[in-house]
Amino acid sequence: MLAVTAGLLVVAPVAPASAAAPTTGRFTPVAPARAWSGTATSKLTTVTFAGRNGIPSNATAVVLTATVTSPSAAAYVSVAPFGSTASPAIQNFARAQPISGTTTVGLTSGKAQVKVSAGKATVALDVAGWYGTSATGSTYTPLAPTNVLNGTVTTGAKRIVVAGKAGVPSNATAVVLQADVSRPATSGRLRLTPYGNNAGVVSLMYSKGTTVANTTTVRLSGGAVQAKVSSGSARVLADVVGYYAPNANGSVFVSAHPVRAATVAAGTTATKVTVAGTAGVPRNATAAVINAKVGGGSVGGSLRVVGAGLASSVPTQIYAKGQTIGNALIAPLASGGQVQAKVSAGRATVYVDVVGYFLNGNSGSGTGVDVSYPQCGKSVPTDQSFGIVGVNSSLGNTTNPCLQQQLSWAAASAGGTAQPKTQVYALFANPGAGAASVWPTSNVYPAGHTVTRNTYGTCAAVNGKPATTRACSFMYGYARAYDDAASRGITNPGQYRWWLDVETGLSHLSDTTQNLAALEGMLAGLQDAGVTQVGVYSTAYQFRTIVGTVPATSTLRKNTLPSWIAIGDGRLDQAQAACSGARLLGGPIAMTQYKTPFGSTEIDRNWSCS
After folding, report:
1. What DSSP state is assigned to residue 580?
2. Cβ-count burial 395-412 (b if 16+ within 10 Å, e if not)
3. For strand 368-371 and strand 61-69, is the pairing parallel, antiparallel, or unpaired?
4. Mean pLDDT of 32-39
5. Cβ–Cβ < 8 Å for 503, 479
6. HEC states along 101-134?
7. pTM of the entire predicted model
8. CA pair distance 17, 577, nearest whole angstrom
9. Residue 578: strand, helix, or coil
10. pLDDT at 14 > cutoff 90
């Protein structure tokens, strides 16, 4: 298809998506350590994480805290996957203001890139763990925020037992804590580390008298963490919002291109923001990794961004009037895939950026995959929520040699979307009478059956020779589609939704009216073979190039066929956005397709628009 030039198919049925979480995307906590420190400017600096602090070369993401000191200008610090065009703001700061922020960053070949948006600053990156392929790694379970610390912390380590409390099991390997330091008497640093570990990494930087919050991930040691400050004492609050454990029924992390999910005018009443189904997050995501930023507050106050319907004793962030400042969080998405944002006083603008999400192993990827003959004998994903299989080989009058095996693969899809778990597609073709190996000369097909649906009249030879007329183009398309449904080995073709694959790489004539007739013939051929669900796959440009403007009288419009839109190389968020694009015909856009890396090659992923 359009987005599959080099593909992957199967020669034997593939097992259904496992109910257990896969090994890919599991978390391995590490002893907190500095991975990099240096001067950051507005030009990107590449940082290699692979090979440091136990992070392997195949790690897909890291959880880190970025600490900024001595900034020469007001700006923000950004850490993004190496090669990314996005610059997500981890934290904003004023000139000379020290500050820290925690986030999760995808890795490309073990690398990320760091910058500040203006001036220069000393930036340190402290890593708490990594995501990747690990049979012993931990899955994530989000929790409703529950307070585990509310008291004074000094320079002596304060032990905080978390395992066995607040929904955290005894085998948890790490926890996610949302913490704040309230009006400290002196400036300093809060360090949240595994119990017994006195690493000098920073969990939160604060200034005298200023309340500030941060979210951090901490490995558990003996089921506990410890808290200490660098000087004096401070009142610290901490909520546990999730945990990692070596369980098969938890969720795994999927790194995503940083995308702004929403810009919200927030007030003191919670405003809901839909995250799942947009911003590169599938609808079956259990949690989203979010960078939430507040700015332009009419008065000083606190921001709270939590899963819809939840509450937290610890604010997402504290801000002064007009100040821009942010924080990361992992928000549960159990309630309609939404989070909610509100401020404690006045009005403020809240920016919600998504940098990744979590999926439970028994729900699949939330996206579909389409395969055909190029994938015969090759690896294909097994996490698909639905599968679409090509019935043809390279030509519209041939059969995909792996059709039966691939139908079995599709039938094993996880489901859970608005799409049927198994669908098929057939190639459009119209070579014309001069190039076709067989060209019709009547309205009879198959033998003994006269086609009454031909709106162009009767197909007939001209001067005893096959002729490229619209009536005969209709019959050519009819024969191809009828054979696809009746002669390719598909049992009960009416059980599937069929897609007509229309693209310029396939045979077609320069006369768009002839191609339109052939496509209408394909629709009629499928319908006469017992198919009731038919749609069209293409791009707006390629569809228009091949069939021109489809009149309202065409059966393609009268049947309000749905569209399946290809975007080529792309990302899930771009495929989601394409759902609101131009339709090919009168029906809705049912799916979009994007080509994405898979192993050493690429594969077609598909998004259900409803």
Report:
1. G
2. ebbebbebbebbbbbbeb
3. unpaired
4. 93
5. no
6. EEEEEECECCEEEEEECCCCEEEEEEEEEEEECC
7. 0.89
8. 27
9. helix
10. no
- Helix orientation angle between 470-486 and 512-528, rounded to the nearest 10 degrees: 40
User: Which DSSP category does 489 fall into?
Assistant: S
| DSSP state, residue 341 | E
- How many C-beta neighbours within 10 Å does residue 505 have? 11
Tracing tokens 């809060």 back to the chain, one arrives at: 190
DSSP letter string, 518-546:
HHHHHHHHHHHTT--EEEEEE-HHHHHHH
Question: Which pLDDT does position 6 carry in this prediction?
Answer: 27
Residue pair 519/470 in contact by the 8 Å Cβ criterion:
no
Compute the Cα dihedral for 450, 456, 458, 460 and give only its sign: negative
Three-class DSSP category at 547: helix
Distance between CA atoms of residues 258 and 81, nearest Å: 9
pLDDT at position 199 is 86
pLDDT digits (tens, 9 = 90+) for 368-405: 999 999 999 999 999 999 999 999 999 999 999 999 99
pLDDT digits (tens, 9 = 90+) for 490-524: 999 999 999 999 999 999 999 999 999 999 999 99
Q: Give dist(CA 575, CA 608) in Å, integer.
A: 9
CA distance linking residue 216 with residue 236, whole number of Å: 14
Q: How confident is the model at residue 86, as a pLDDT?
A: 83
Instruction: Compute the C-alpha angle 392/395/401, nearest 5°.
Output: 40
* The pair of three-digit structure tokens given for residue 250, joined into one six-digit string: 């938890």
Q: Cα 528 from chain centroid? A: 39
- Paired with 131 in beta bridges are 27, 61
Cis peptide preceding 446, ω within 30 of 0: yes
Enter the DSSP assignment of 232. S
Nearest CA-CA partner of 588 in 577, 596, 580: 580
Strand pairing report for 601-608 and 26-40 = unpaired
Which of 128, 13, 46 is CA-nearest to residue 402?
13
Residue closest to 293 by CA, chosen among 46, 14, 89, 588? 89
